[in-house]
Prior knowledge:
Blueprint: H1 11-34, H2 38-42, H3 52-67, H4 94-112, E1 123-126, E2 129-132, H5 133-156
Antiparallel strand pairs: 1-2
Helix pairs in contact: 1-5, 3-4, 3-5
Amino acid sequence: MTTTRGAAMSHEAILDLCLREFRRTKQLADRAITQLDDEQFFRALAADGNSVAIVVKHVAGNARSRWRDFLTSDGEKPDRDRDSEFVLDDRDTRADLIRRWEEGWAYLFGALEPLGEADLDREVKIRGEALSVLQAIHRQLSHYAYHVGQIVLLART
């Protein structure tokens, strides 16, 4: 990969950039979430739409699955029930959802921060699909940025 000035970026620099973007993405979501009262946090704009609470629940579940044992097991863990991430139940209080959100991000940073340049070419699997660590990181960065965009939009409406 090259920068806009033509100099090649090391894998380590790319990893640092990805970590910075994950932190920035989380911070953007956190700022939007803190602006919401409970009614706004759980409100969907349409009957078939997602609320901030549901997006938080989904990202938390995804992060827990993808980043727990990141280098050693498939990123789609057998204990994940993705469909349930889009349904709220009595246990899904704001405090519990935020706790799971923070736990998911902790898994992410705990998995990525110790990585070195040599790790980025290693192979990991997500739903049985072989990806390089760098590809998996990019995939999740894009996924979380998409959902954080939803959170920001919902927070502004």
